């Protein structure tokens, strides 16, 4: 299997990233890894240690380069995480869609305006202990579900 290492300066949220990739080099996929977050092994002298982007043609996916661990035998283990926007950009670019609402309140989403999903920059954390709950199912005894309902804008002190 071959991998091409390179670099990009574009934000992770950009679909049509600009990137530079080097020549394909031979690599091995570490056992027990996934296609979304593979760990590959390459010879030390064949990798640009400043690379932050990669492409594996066999998987037809682009990846962000994560940690690099130097191992025995003049080799380097490289952790990769898939870049789904660039990997599937042709399909995404061919779709017509309108984003009506944000799905989660995350680092990026916190700054998007959505009048149907009001947000605040304030963090309120409340821990309430339950002695028992009626929401535990037989299959989920190790992972019980809880229902939280918030009404109004008051805080629990």
| Succession of helices and strands | EEEEEEEEHH
Total number of strands? 8
| Envelope shape | extended
Question: How many helical elements?
Answer: 2
Low-confidence stretches: none
Overall mean confidence score, pLDDT: 79
SS strand fraction: 25-35%
Derived from helix and strand composition plus strand pairing, the structural class reads mainly beta
The biggest sheet, with number of strands, parallel, antiparallel or mixed sense and barrel status, is: 8 strands, antiparallel
What percent of the residues sit in helical stretches (DSSP H or I)?
A: under 10%
Q: What is the radius of gyration computed over CA atoms, rounded to a whole number of angstroms? A: 22 Å
Question: What's the short story on this structure?
Answer:
The protein has 157 residues and is mainly beta.
Could you characterize the architecture of this molecule?
The protein has a domain at 2-87. Strands 1, 2, 3, 4, 5, 6, 7 and 8 form an 8-stranded antiparallel sheet that branches. The protein is built from 2 helices and 8 strands; from the N terminus they run ββββββββαα. Helices cover 6% and strands 27% of the residues. The model has no long low-confidence stretch (mean pLDDT 79). By secondary structure, it is mainly β. A hairpin with a 4-residue loop joins strand 6 (53-56) and strand 7. The N and C termini lie far apart (58 Å).
Features:
single chain, 8-stranded antiparallel β-sheet, extended, 6% helix, 157 residues, mainly beta
How do the helices and strands line up, and which of them pair or pack?
Layout: E1 2-8, E2 19-21, E3 25-26, E4 28-29, E5 39-43, E6 53-56, E7 61-71, E8 75-82, H1 84-87, H2 89-93
């Amino acid at each position: 299997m071959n991998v091409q290492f390179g670099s990009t300066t574009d934000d992770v949220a950009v679909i049509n990233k600009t990137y530079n990739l080097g020549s394909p080099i031979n690599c091995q996929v570490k056992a027990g890894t996934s296609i979304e977050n593979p760990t590959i092994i390459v010879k030390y002298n064949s990798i640009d240690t400043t690379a932050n982007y990669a492409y594996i043609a066999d998987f037809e996916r682009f990846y962000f380069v994560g940690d690099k661990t130097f191992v025995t035998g003049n080799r380097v283990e490289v952790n990769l995480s898939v870049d789904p926007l660039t990997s599937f950009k042709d399909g995404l670019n061919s779709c017509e869609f309108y984003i009506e609402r944000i799905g989660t309140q995350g680092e990026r989403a916190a700054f998007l305006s959505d009048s149907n999903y009001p947000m605040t920059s304030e963090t309120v954390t409340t821990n309430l202990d339950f002695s028992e709950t009626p929401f535990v199912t037989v299959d989920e005894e190790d992972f019980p579900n809880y229902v939280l309902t918030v009404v109004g804008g008051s805080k629990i002190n």
